[in-house]
Structures are given as structure tokens and as C-alpha cells.
Amino acid sequence: MYEKIDAYVLGLIEKSSPEYTAWNIERARAGKAASWNYIDGCMLISLLEMAKICKDARYSDFVEHFVDSFIGDDGSIRTWAPEKQTLDDINEGRVLFPLYQMTGKEKYRLAAEKLQSALDAQPRTAEGNFWHKKIYPHQVWLDGIYMAQVFAALYQKHLGKGDYSDILRQIEMVRARMFDEKKGLYYHGYDCSRSAFWADPETGLSQSFWLRAMGWFAAALTDLCEILEGAAKEKMAALLSEMMAGILPYADPDTGMYYQVVDQGGREGNYLETSGSSMMAYAMMKGARIGALDKKYAAKGLKTFHGIVEKYLSFDGDDMQLDGICLVAGLGPESDRRRDGTYAYYISEPIVKNDAKGAAPLVMCYTEVRRLNQAE
């Protein structure tokens, strides 16, 4: 089975170009042009990991060629629209740091500087957290931590002054406002102003615990544990340990997977979802590997990965079919009141096959499976 996944991942890069990515089938079907986006960033980061694990330059050569098509010599980023002020567009910038170390191309540093300047200008809530997007004023979403704060930490480590205080403050505010002590889970969104139609008028919180948002947050905490050192790393590890202990009781006992709406397992319409389960498995295995989590989580994460494979993964020749992926979910904006954060909303979003938001997290998770196997 691992050999088939290896062949599939290699096949992805053989079939892909900067203008067409074989892992982003939904984008191709919709006729959307290539763009600088967070999910390609997730896949490219995973491909660089595959290059290290397999000692195969085809992966890293592909990533360099891909990113070069978007980055001008002056550090300009093709298709990026900084005026939209969306944290999603920051995530792909993570790949600039290893590429700069590998090649010394100055344009990667310049591009990273531009993205950091955009973060510096990002609107903030009254409590100091980044708005998720310009179109979502005063709102903090869990997924935004992955999109922006890991990049910010890498920037501070490689190009900045090593000042992680703002990153820590923002994440600690998420813990203070968005964590449910009784359930041990994080809400998807929080509106500091309490003015969004989906926000609780007293707490500002959305209503539900959406798996993929929690998955992005878990992956962010794990990656930050790898980047940070000392007391900062210990803070992130404590939050990660708390989060994993909180979600573990909600795992499906047979597959180890997690539900689209995490705490509503067995409720009509709910389902075991691929992308969020992949990220939880990634966080557990990597967290255990780097010493941020108890070693027991390696086996827990591996069980989840195998559960995804058995339930939703199939092969047709060299082509991999991955099912059980929530296409998209969000909160608002005001013009889209269907996205109201209710249980009914989250289970109403389409369940699709082979979407990049499932395929990229699965490959990300698979890199930790490979590392686990190498350690045995």
C-alpha cells in the first residue's frame, strides 16, 4: 500500500505544472486559473519533506520550478492580491524559506519580505489578533493560525529578530476565547465585536466544532513546536497536548477518524471526514516524533491514517481516489447567511473526491508515516 502511495505522489508531480496541479481537480473542473494559494502551499511543503525522506531531488526540483513561476526577480508574486488582506495567501510563503536555504536565490527572500509586510499591515481585532480576511472584520478563525502564524515564526527565525511574542499572544488569545473547557474542543470562529450574524451575542463564538478548522490549528501548533525553542516551544507543546487530549475521546473507535462536526458523532448526516482526520493524524505523529507529545500519540495517529486508507482510499491503476472530503466551509460573510456555523450548515456542504484540501493533508500526513517507518 505504501508503494502505491509513493507512486501516486510521484505521479502527481509528473502530471502537474504551475498552470495545472493534478492534486487540485476541483479547481481544474471549475476552469480556474493557477494562483498563489494556501492549499498548493500545503502540498509543496509536503513534497519538500518527501524529497528529504526519499532522498529524491525530483520532488524538490518540482517545487523550485513551481515556485519560480510565481516569484519575480524583485520578489513580486504573480496572482497575489495583497489588497484583499486574506491570511490564506500567506501560507504558501512558508516554502520560500527552505528554497532560499537550498538555492540562495535572493528573490525568495524578497518575496518573504513582501508577505511579512502584508502581515504587518493586516487589520487586527481590538484584542490584537489578525482579522481572518478583510471581508471578515473583527473575526478570528482557527484555520488562520495555520495560514499566517507558522510563516510569521519562520520569518522571525530566518530573516527577523527572533521575536515570537506577537505570535504567542495571538495564539494564547485563541486559547482564551475559543476553547471549550468542558468539551476539550475549539470553536471554528470568534467575532471580537459580537456583530457577525453567526456569532453568539455574549461570547462572540460560532456554534460548532468543525473538524478541518481544528485540524489546521493542530497542524499549526505542531509545526510551531518544531520551529520555536525554549519557553515558547514549551507553551505551544502544552497547548498541543491539551488539544490532542481533548479530541482523542471523539475518535471513531473502529477507524480512529474524526467527524465533520467533531462532537456530534452518530448524529444523522454527520460523517467521518478525510482532511481534518489527516491533519489530526499528522499532528499526533509529528508531535510524538519531535517530543512535543507523549509517544503514545504516534500509534494513535498511525491508526487514524490507516483508518482513512481503509475507508476512503482506493486505486485505479496508478490513480488514487480519495473520498470523504468536505469541499469547503466557512462563516458568512453577511451576504451568505447560509454559512451560519450550525450543525445543519456543516453537513450541507458537498462531500467530494480528490479535492486538494483532502489530498494535500493526506500527503502531509503520509510524510510522518514514512518517517515513523524509517525510525522502526
Task: Give a concise summary.
The protein is mainly α and 376 residues long. Helices cover 52% and strands 6% of the residues. The chain has one domain (2-375): Glycosyltransferase (Alpha/alpha barrel).
Tell me about this structure.
It contains 14 helices and 8 strands. It is mainly alpha-helical and 376 residues long. It has a single domain (2-375), classed as Glycosyltransferase (Alpha/alpha barrel), CATH 1.50.10. A hairpin with a 2-residue loop joins strand 5 and strand 6. The protein is globular, with a radius of gyration of 19 Å.
At CATH level 2, the architecture is: Alpha/alpha barrel
Q: Cα-atom Rg, whole angstroms?
A: 19 Å
The end-to-end span amounts to 18 Å
Q: Summarize the biggest pleated sheet.
A: 2 strands, antiparallel
Please work out how many helical segments DSSP would assign: 14
The CATH topology: Glycosyltransferase
Helix content: 40-55%
Strand order across the biggest sheet? Answer: 1-4
The CATH class: Mainly Alpha
What number of domains? 1
Question: Helices and strands: which structural class?
Answer: mainly alpha
- Counted beta strands: 8
Low-confidence blocks of residues: none
* Beta strand %: 5-15%
Describe the global form: globular
Order of helices and strands: HHHHHHEHHEEEHHHHEEEHEH
User: Averaged pLDDT, please?
Assistant: 96
